[in-house]
Amino acid sequence: MSQVIQTLRNRRLLRSTSIPVLLKAVLFVGGFLLPAYMLYVWLLAPEGFFVSLPDSSVMTVEVDEVNKPYHLGNARETYVINLPHHMEQLRTALDINWDYVNGVYLNSSLVRNTLEWVHTVRSGPPHVVGDEEKPSKADEISFTWPTDIDALATANSGLDLWSSGNGVWPLPPAVPKELPPYLQPMASSTENYNIATNVSAQPQHLLLTEARVACWFGHLDLIHKIANSLKDDEFAIILEDDVDMERDTDEQMKNLWSYLPADWDMVFLGHCCSDESRGQRISPGPPDLSNDDSAPQSSHSQLHASSAPQCTHAYALSRTGARRLLLHLRYPPFAFSRAIDQAISWLIYTNRIKSYSAVPALIVQRRISNSDITEGIGFWQKDKLVSSVFDDRGKGKMMKRKAIPFHRKNRHRVKHT
């Protein structure tokens, strides 16, 4: 019996002494071996040891060596302003390529600096007088467009993003500085340079807000890139990240492009707030399919001379058109003077930009409440799609994907870098 008791005592002693031993082992591993291993990884591990996490904000398209990227309607370049997650479903369903570019958020310090710059240009000197006024003081000048716009639009030289204004106006800050004091919304310009004096009486769409400046920045950067990258016979497309389109947009664009005159500047693939069918039609008209029940659904859109299109969710630019548009939009008294779609609409209305519109629209804004850079959208839209990629019932559901021709399969895949 005494031997059994002694054996139990020995086991209890063994357990009691083993606990500190285990604790010491844990402390040794955690306090010495782990830091030593981390130091090895940091200093001596071979290159390529680390695997970085994917950045969802940067995406590239990897293209195989045999086939070139397939862009909408044979465009040389296609850009989507803002966030990829809104548009990847659409891109995949249509099996086309585009590049994502960052937009400018309305709370950016660059936006506030630009509002301050607009205030400086408007305050003078020199003081620019409105379209119907005449200078009456020594420091007043009339609004006039630069006389070299047409020559620069067709030239081969590169264009800067900003115009120096012939030394008359200061350039906007290239690098955001410290936030200026809060600026109340200013009145938007109308026509060339008409600015209301009673800001409080202006409707919302005639106020120059942070959201409108941010949207202008996003488009201006891309227009500048396109102006300096295209060849004479190429065009590029700019899309915002909140669109839906006809499933046969690619085929319709290829057909319609043959009717464009050689000197076209711009084509609105989508538009709002105007009846673009009023402009002269330059394409032959929709086919008569009244007796053909087997014909696929299509909007059979036509090209009309633009009248006063608004909204910038989908448009195409030729090389000359991008350069001509940039030269107008960067001119200091006109730059950031209003919403960019109102500015472009005015340039078209006054025949400074040669533009055409697809009627009905091939690309529309989706019925969502907010985009990433502007307030609510989609409620001024006239056209509805005949065969949209997204379910028209508003649930964000994808319609059944159609078959892709064999020669267009597996040309690209999206990856994170």
UniProtKB/TrEMBL annotation:
<protein>
    <recommendedName>
        <fullName>Glycosyl transferase family 25 domain-containing protein</fullName>
    </recommendedName>
</protein>
<feature type="domain" description="Glycosyl transferase family 25">
    <location>
        <begin position="202"/>
        <end position="330"/>
    </location>
</feature>
<feature type="transmembrane region" description="Helical">
    <location>
        <begin position="21"/>
        <end position="43"/>
    </location>
</feature>
<keyword id="KW-0472">Membrane</keyword>
<keyword id="KW-1133">Transmembrane helix</keyword>
<feature type="region of interest" description="Disordered">
    <location>
        <begin position="277"/>
        <end position="307"/>
    </location>
</feature>
<keyword id="KW-0812">Transmembrane</keyword>
<dbReference type="Pfam" id="PF01755">
    <property type="entry name" value="Glyco_transf_25"/>
</dbReference>
<dbReference type="InterPro" id="IPR002654">
    <property type="entry name" value="Glyco_trans_25"/>
</dbReference>
<feature type="compositionally biased region" description="Low complexity">
    <location>
        <begin position="294"/>
        <end position="307"/>
    </location>
</feature>
